[in-house]
Amino acid sequence: MEHADVLGLALMDYLENGFSEDIRTTSSLEETDVLPLAHLFRGYAAMPELEQKALQQCTGSVLDIGCGAGSHSLWLQEQGLKVTAIDISPGAIHCAKQRGVNNVIVSDFLDHQGSYDTLLLLMNGIGLAGALAGLGPMLHKLKSLLAPGGQILVDSSDIIYMFEDEKGEYWVDPNGYYGEVQFQMHYKKFSSPRFPWLYVDYNTLTRACLAHGLQCEMIAEGAHYDYLARIHTINP
Fold first, then answer.
1. One GO biological process from the UniProt record (predicted)?
2. Rounded to whole angstroms, how far apart are CA atoms 68 and 165?
3. Quick one: which H or E segment has residue 133?
4. Which residues contact 86 (CB under 8 A, 6 or more apart)?
5. Which residues are paired to 157 by β-bridges?
6. Per-residue model confidence as pLDDT tens digits over 46-84
7. pTM value?
8. CATH number for the domain including 77?
9. What is the number of alpha carbons within 13 Å of residue 96 lying toward its C-beta?
């Protein structure tokens, strides 16, 4: 049965009724995977090192884009930062509010207005671009949300390793970008509509940033082809 907010449904069920089962995902990579609900409610100590490092880099007013159940926003609030948490999922925003996030908004970031010192896009938040063609418009919108001297903190992964054969050769479509993936979420009897998601390698992200007057700097690399980057405007 199709449900428009499978993620929110699962998060609310976990928060209000406790664990029963995790979200399953299927993708165009022909893989079935599990998204553990407990992982979406984790505290700072249980977060991956790249996420911890990203949170430590946050300053001033913060816009947590795709906040989910609000774990990142909660920690930032505890550090005394002013945080606005947004997500297109009404269920996710309900959970974030119930958990104590002070300022929550159901919104697509493309429709959001404001000025922030830090834009936070974790758990491959750059994936919201959907496709490589959507990366430029996304960066243009993010740039419009930056206060003078502001920063964008984003993590992603270079998934080229998934296309490597035993000879060390890569089998990818030369007419497309290998990081463009179609996903679908499943929880109990419900399934989301299929949606596009983007994984972008660091060099491609850097080139896209330069095309929009932005500079991309590597902060840290993870253990499994992932990285954390800071994006900011190029000084004249």
1. methylation
2. 35
3. helix 132-144
4. 63, 64, 65, 66, 67, 93, 104, 105, 106, 107, 109, 112
5. 226
6. 999 999 999 999 999 999 999 999 999 999 999 999 999
7. 0.96
8. 3.40.50.150
9. 32
